[in-house]
Amino acid sequence: MFWRISCLVLFLASLWAPVHGGPMTSPHPNITDQELFWGSDQYDFSVVLPAGGLECFWHFAHRGEHFYLNFVVQWVTGVGHDSHLSVMVNAPGGLVVSSVDEAKGQINFKAEETGFYQMCFSNFHNRFGNMQIFLSFGVFYEGQQDPAKSKEEERKKKEEAGKDLNNTLTIIADATHRVENQVFHMFRYYSFGRMRKSGDHFLLLSNSQYITWWSTALSLLIVTSGYLQLVFLKRLFVSKTAEEEKPRC
């Protein structure tokens, strides 16, 4: 009985799993494609096409954006090879936007639909030789420049920013040295001021002690001189009587 119940549970789980456990066809069901793929992307890489091979790539573009594709055949192998490459760009609706059959070229157009544009590269001209091609494709918005020009401008801006940074660093270094020099002189003047203040303080102390000692000495000298003068003047007025001059027995 228990075995039958277990088999029934496993059977129900196997029926329920594909519905809730299968792969998600939409990774973000609540987000539109406008929010998912909005951005100006650019890709540069090389790819090898086998003899008579076909490679297709997809790139997302919004309506109103400028789509560009640059390609060049780098090398071709085999006997009697042909360097021509057949390139075709299809719109999201399936219509052919542009096609080129050259060894190198570029395709530029303004996207009229929002979606993934298909780029197919065919090597049907060479039935017995491989071909390596270099691709550069992407989108840019209205008001932006061509990617090559924008790269050149970015390089110039980086160089100017580097020069400005070097100039700024030089100015900062000069200002720092100037501030250090001024601070050094300020501390030097401060030390001299403290030294002068200390010298004046010790000079005042020594003068105070000098004046105190001399004042004390002069006061004692004056008192002693007055006392001696008083004694001397007192002796001048001493008188002896006749009785005192008589000889004593």
TrEMBL record:
<dbReference type="Pfam" id="PF01105">
    <property type="entry name" value="EMP24_GP25L"/>
</dbReference>
<keyword id="KW-0256">Endoplasmic reticulum</keyword>
<keyword id="KW-1133">Transmembrane helix</keyword>
<feature type="domain" description="GOLD">
    <location>
        <begin position="54"/>
        <end position="139"/>
    </location>
</feature>
<keyword id="KW-0472">Membrane</keyword>
<dbReference type="GO" id="GO:0005789">
    <property type="term" value="C:endoplasmic reticulum membrane"/>
</dbReference>
<keyword id="KW-0732">Signal</keyword>
<keyword id="KW-0812">Transmembrane</keyword>
<dbReference type="InterPro" id="IPR015720">
    <property type="entry name" value="Emp24-like"/>
</dbReference>
<protein>
    <submittedName>
        <fullName>Transmembrane emp24 domain-containing protein 6-like</fullName>
    </submittedName>
</protein>
<feature type="transmembrane region" description="Helical">
    <location>
        <begin position="211"/>
        <end position="233"/>
    </location>
</feature>
<feature type="signal peptide">
    <location>
        <begin position="1"/>
        <end position="21"/>
    </location>
</feature>
<comment type="similarity">
    <text>Belongs to the EMP24/GP25L family.</text>
</comment>
<dbReference type="InterPro" id="IPR009038">
    <property type="entry name" value="GOLD_dom"/>
</dbReference>
